[in-house]
Amino acid sequence: MHFIKNNAIVVTKTPHTAEEFIQKKIELLTDEAEPFFAVDLEDVCNKHIRWLTLMPRVTPHYAVKCNDDINVIKLLAYLGAGFDCASKGEIKKVMDLGVSSDRIIYANPCKQSSFIRYAQEVGVEVMTFDNKQELLKIKQVYPNAKLVLRIVTDDSNAVCRFSMKFGADMKTAHELIEKAQEIDMEVIGVSFHCGSGQMTSKAFVDAIQNARIIMNYGIKLGFNMHLLDIGGGFPGNIGTEDYFAEIAGAVNRALDEHFPDDGTVRIIAEPGRYYVASAYTLATNIIASREMIEPETGNAKYMYYINDGVYGSFNCVLYDHYVPVPSLFAKNASNDKYTSSIWGPTCDGLDCINTTIELPKLEIGDWMYWKNMGAYTISAAVQFNGLPFGKPLYFMSKQFWDTVKAAFLTVPRKYQADTSAIRLNSTDCSNEVEDDMLPWLPEDIAEDTTVVTIQ
After folding, report:
1. b/e for 360-379, b at 16 or more Cβ within 10 A?
2. What is the DSSP string of 284-307?
3. Beta-ladder partners of 358
4. Rounded to 5 degrees, what are φ and ψ at 247?
5. pLDDT (tens digit, 9 = 90+) per residue, 235-284?
6. What is the extent of the structural domain holding 111?
7. Cα(380)–Cα(395) distance, rounded to whole angstroms?
8. Of 366, 370, 382, 410, which sits 20 to 30 A from 320 (CA to CA)?
């Protein structure tokens, strides 16, 4: 069986964890291997179900920029999600899978003219703007576009702030609505983004209230304001479930207050990390090490070099302000800890993943794994120095595969925007392990294929 050839989806008889999956993969290796991601597609499904349960009025439009893995896009398309695209390339990638144009919002307030023209050619009508120059540019290139005005938010508590680059303040927003009326452009709604990794629900509540004010002004001027886009920023790491529930509750209350459920306004969002952060676990190998002695104390300290770094999968350290922490397998467990640092494989001194961390003594060839590595990792990775970065290897249980295998047909299908396309309860997408046996060997493979190759 070719374990990772052509990005196979490995289907097992029972659900299991990413750690178990990685351990079995490592056991099958005969030589030093490249880094790889264990991708739990069931986790993505679980996130979708949780979203629909906690915020049933808000239709998720997955932010492709967060992680443009084609199998994630296929699954979310099948589950009924929409898509937030920021470029011609992202629009094309999604539509090539058969996703209809009405399920896409071109949510980049600063667009290249040729990309706007492409959106017109393929029928993507809804797009954002936040300034006069962008409004006039869209008027010239795509006068029939349906516009969504992006307003600024208080994103001071976000991990990645966007307000310094995008969003119109309240005064400017009123002026832009007036300008759109003057040049006969159709504004259909308001959008905002509270910043990636937003740490307070108040930011969403305040932004929803401000959106209502602008929507009311647009209605007063004669526009049919029927779309509210509450953006992204929703947490997706393991352990943030309660915090997401808190945000969802606050959003629901604010929507009920300012946008009663009377069928006049469609509400969408642009979650990215929410869907994929916890689904990806990165496995890396120690390829070199260095022991040093502190001259003052005589204590040993260690530098470990692994086969992925900040130019590859760990670019989130630079771009997403992420502080990754490795997990070790049982054989590396020890009460003796040493001051250590972890470095990537390139020749650049900037390629440092952890500057100071307490670890047991590790050896060349040891593996470590990194949780919550699905957001803003592979989407921005490059092969600097010609070095590979982590490639995805997907796994799911037989039960889950039987439910969603239509999503991974090699011939694109016309996905319908119907969230009832799949009806699952929490046990259908569970990550709980029922037994210790993982059927990896060929004799355990079901007749209807356990390894499915995605073209």
Report:
1. eebeeebbbbbbbbbbbbbb
2. EEEEEEEEEE-TTT--EEEEEEES
3. 339
4. -60, -45
5. 999 999 999 999 999 999 999 999 999 999 999 999 999 999 999 999 99
6. 42-275
7. 23
8. 366
**What residues act catalytically?**
347
> pLDDT by residue (tens digit) across 38-82?
999 999 999 999 999 999 999 999 999 999 999 999 999 999 999
Q: Are 45 and 424 in contact (CB under 8 A)?
A: yes
Rounded Cα gap, residues 14 and 434, in angstroms: 6
**361, 393, 425: which is the final residue of a domain?**
393
| Cα angle 61-64-68, degrees, rounded to a multiple of 5 | 140
Q: How many domains does the chain have?
A: 2
| Token pair for 103 | 């399920």
Q: How confident is the model at residue 318 (pLDDT cuts 50, 70, 90)?
A: confident
Residue 102, classed as helix, strand or coil, is helix
- Note whether 113 and 137 are within 8 A (CB): yes
Measure the CA–CA gap between 243 and 298, rounded to whole angstroms.
44
Determine the Cα–Cα distance for residues 16 and 41; give it in Å rounded to an integer: 12
Q: Which of 251, 275, 299 is the last residue of a domain?
A: 275
Q: How far apart are CA 285 and CA 146, in angstroms?
A: 49
Mean pLDDT of 148-162: 68
157, 193, 220 from 130: Cα distances, Å = 22, 12, 20
Which pLDDT belongs to residue 29? 79
